[in-house]
């Protein structure tokens, strides 16, 4: 080892000793750690072994497929997420630059007219091009850890884009299912209104000839109006749902094309996934894990700021002069420097404490994300199972009420029952049929939400770091 390097090493050791006590990186709070349970608490009705990347195609509706393609192309939230990925990539490239040397070129020229010692005027021109190179020896990993944090943040942003993509797809599917359910309700109301209108004409004819009292006519009129007033409400909901779908696909409000009716839409097959697998297959959990790893890297970089930075620099140039030296002269310099913090008013310690707090915050956010994901899966498992039970019960109730309406109508026409029995049966049947439509839509939406809660077929990239 030559003398300059020995001196540089001695100066580095002295700088470290002068800096005093360098803090240790504290461990993540034990209470912030999380471990997934071995099994789901709720009963699972999984029907598929492997997640389907294009799971929405299982609903077998070409119109829905087209809407999702439009949403993936034009959705504003997804475009913003993709822009944030570009921003994170640029920041990663900027942090990587600190690991590389810098090279600069400069040049200057001067012209000077002066008198020499003999009183003779002389004209001098000097040109001096030069190159300067500098490199910081990342001895303690400050720049390396900062670059690692930038890379992890970029990966987290890419995962956030995947989460946004999954959310856009799921929301589009659920909005379309809700729209088809509203269409079914409107169709049911229009059919019911037609039946009420026929009954009203019959009641009017009977009242005109004095066969029945005005009471039955008024009851028929009221029942017709009660059905009629529900139609504008559903039509308004359909318009609002179309507006929401139009915004999802990135267009102005328009009439949404219809495909299969609600009864023909197939629920997507749910993948068989354990709670522990959820932590690698759900994008928001992977994103939170990457942000935690990035905060660890930032903390390591902040700790390295307590240690000295070592820089080397070199300059090479050439001087061209017309006087007094006619021949060009090469000039160069090489040197090293050490910059060690001795007193900075506590700013480095405060920055270290700030990064400790941010790392702990990231750990708590990771725990919260995992627990929220587990809760969402449990909620949708429960909803899917219970909604199936509700639909079965509603179908039984619908059959019973349809039979009751048939008997009530026969008894009324035979003169054994009042018209009020028919009206009660009609109201009850309409209510149950509307609930049955909503129950079918809720079940489909719950299955879609369950697929979304399980990660929606998304798989992380192989180089994604999920260490926590």
TrEMBL record:
Subcellular location: Cell membrane
Predominant cellular place of this UniProt entry's protein: membrane
Spans traversing the lipid bilayer: none
Record GO cellular component, one term: plasma membrane
UniProt feature coiled coil, ranges: 179-206
Membrane-topology annotation of the record: Lipid-anchor
InterPro entries named among the record's database cross-references: MdtP/NodT-like, OMP_efflux
Keyword set includes Membrane: yes
Pfam families documented for this protein: OEP
Alphabetically ordered keywords of this record: Coiled coil, Lipoprotein, Membrane, Palmitate, Transmembrane, Transmembrane beta strand
Keyword Membrane annotated: yes
Gene3D superfamilies reported for this sequence: Outer membrane efflux proteins (OEP)
One MF term in the entry's GO annotations: efflux transmembrane transporter activity
Family affiliation: Belongs to the outer membrane factor (OMF) (TC 1.B.17) family.
Name by which UniProt lists this protein: RND transporter
Species per Swiss-Prot/TrEMBL record: Snodgrassella alvi
């Amino acid at each position: 080892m030559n003398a300059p390097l020995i001196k540089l090493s001695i100066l580095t050791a002295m700088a470290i000793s002068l800096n005093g006590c360098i803090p240790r990186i504290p461990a993540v709070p034990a209470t912030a750690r999380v471990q997934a349970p071995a099994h789901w608490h709720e009963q699972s009705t999984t029907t598929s072994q492997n997640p389907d990347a294009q799971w929405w195609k299982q609903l077998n509706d070409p119109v829905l497929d087209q809407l999702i393609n439009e949403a993936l192309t034009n959705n504003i939230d997804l475009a913003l997420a993709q822009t944030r990925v570009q921003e994170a990539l640029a920041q990663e490239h900027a942090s990587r630059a600190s690991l590389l040397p810098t090279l600069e070129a400069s040049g200057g020229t001067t012209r000077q007219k002066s008198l020499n010692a003999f009183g003779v005027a002389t004209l001098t021109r000097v040109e001096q091009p030069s190159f300067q190179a500098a490199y910081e020896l990342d001895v303690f990993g400050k720049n390396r850890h900062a670059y690692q944090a930038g890379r992890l943040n970029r990966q987290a942003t890419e995962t956030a884009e995947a989460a946004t993509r999954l959310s856009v797809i799921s929301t589009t599917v659920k909005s379309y299912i809700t729209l088809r359910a509203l269409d079914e309700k409107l169709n049911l109301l229009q059919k019911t209104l037609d039946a009420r209108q026929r009954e009203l004409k019959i009641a009017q004819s009977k009242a005109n000839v004095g066969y029945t009292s005005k009471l039955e006519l008024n009851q028929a009129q009221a029942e017709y109006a009660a059905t009629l007033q529900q139609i504008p409400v559903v039509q308004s909901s359909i318009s609002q749902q179309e507006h929401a779908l139009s915004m999802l696909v990135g267009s102005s409000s328009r009439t949404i094309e219809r495909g299969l009716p609600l009864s023909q839409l197939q629920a997507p097959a749910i993948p068989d996934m354990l709670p522990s697998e959820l932590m690698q297959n759900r994008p928001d959990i992977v994103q939170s894990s990457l942000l935690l790893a990035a905060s660890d890297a930032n903390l390591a970089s902040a700790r390295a700021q307590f240690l000295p930075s070592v820089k080397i620099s070199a300059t090479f140039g050439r001087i061209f002069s017309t006087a007094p030296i006619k021949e060009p002269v090469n000039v160069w310099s090489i040197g090293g420097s050490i910059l060690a913090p001795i007193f900075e008013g506590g700013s480095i310690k405060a920055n270290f404490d700030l990064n400790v707090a941010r790392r702990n915050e990231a750990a708590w956010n990771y725990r919260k994300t995992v627990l929220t994901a587990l809760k969402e899966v449990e909620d949708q498992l429960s909803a899917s199972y219970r909604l199936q039970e509700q639909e079965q019960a509603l179908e039984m109730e619908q059959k019973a009420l349809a039979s009751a309406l048939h008997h009530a109508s026969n008894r009324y026409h035979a003169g054994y029952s009042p018209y009020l029995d028919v009206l009660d049966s009609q109201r009850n049947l309409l209510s149950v049929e509307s609930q049955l439509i909503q129950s079918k839509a809720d079940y489909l939406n719950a299955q879609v939400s369950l697929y979304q809660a399980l990660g929606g077929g998304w798989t992380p990239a192989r180089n994604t770091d999920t260490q926590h």
